Amino acid sequence: MADKVDKEQQKKIAFPMYARYNLALKYFIEAGMEQKYIMQPQMTRKTMDIGTQHSPDTVCTPFKTTLGSMIEALECGANTLVMVGGPCRLEYYGELQERILRDLGYQFDFINLADNADGKVSGYVKLLRRINPKMHPTKILSGLRDGVKMIEYIDEAEREYYKNCGFEQTKGAYKRAINQFWNDLEKAKTKADIETCHHKVKEAFHGIPLKKEERLRVGVIGEYYTVQDSFSNLDLEQKLADMGVEVHRWMNFTNRNVHYSGEKNLNVRIRDLCQYEMGPTSTANIWCARDYAERGFDGLVHVKSAGCTPEIDIMPVLQNIGADYKIPILYLTYDSQTSDTGLMTRLEAFYDMLKMRKKVIR
Fold this sequence. Notes:
- By secondary structure, the chain is an alpha/beta fold.
- It has 16 helices and eight strands.
- The protein has helices at residues 2-9, 22-32, 45-53, 61-75, 90-103, 121-128, 137-164, 173-187, 191-206, 224-228, 236-242, 253-258, 263-269, 282-294, 309-325, 340-361; strands at 12-14, 36-37, 80-83, 109-112, 216-222, 245-248, 299-305, 329-334.
- The strands form two sheets. It has a four-stranded parallel beta sheet, with helices on both faces. A four-stranded parallel beta sheet has the order 6-5-7-8, sandwiched between helices.
């Protein structure tokens, strides 16, 4: 019995790097599950190269990225990996990635949330209790609620950051404020700590002078993982903001998973554009594109990973929205070979076109 307890206490949990959400996962594992969370390094080109080397050629780019991040986590000392499922090929990521990692010789416990076929909360709690079987479900749910609240604050901070950082009068003020926010969140131990972090970053943002006499507003839409993860999209939003663009992105965990109005409700608003479900985020992206167009945005950027079928399917619908509302759309596809230089060339050309177009319209 003692050996079993010792083994459970030795668990070191990791999850593939995904935007800044690993901060909330760390909190949940350590405060809600009372286990150690391994925070592997932020992803780099090396992460992508490792994942690509061991992935099938035909899988989409997020598979390669998350696999590389898992390998880095194992190399950092993790002995338990957690992976999610989803409504597209993501549902099969975990099973295939586990086989690849075991073939490479790694020894670890694997918790695949895709195994909860019915999607009920009780099923997820049962899977998560494998992290620490001694934890009471009430404690798990309490930690989970706090973790979700942290995610909401992360999304809120990023939304304000990309909307305003391109117009700060003191260069770097927004970057310093949000970096401090990330550092504070990583140290959070209680719900009160999370609330303090949120209050501090709101105050910091509020105290930064802005100058927005002229602005271009661009809406960023696209595939769930790539559009949110700055490494995967080569820091797209920061690049746009640095040009003096007010960047808006509806697609995040909070909007899509916590406060989502549902596919059926969104379909009512776009039923003249599509009559059938087209994939995991397709309905939301079509709705969002039209919403940005109706609100007079200057342009749209559509982001997807190579081979993402649902996002390929909605491109003709987006082209119709572009034609109907006279709004330019830049289509970006990312794979393991996409270069920073190539992206900048396209963004600069898109920005120049939007700027000239706005002068003509005015």
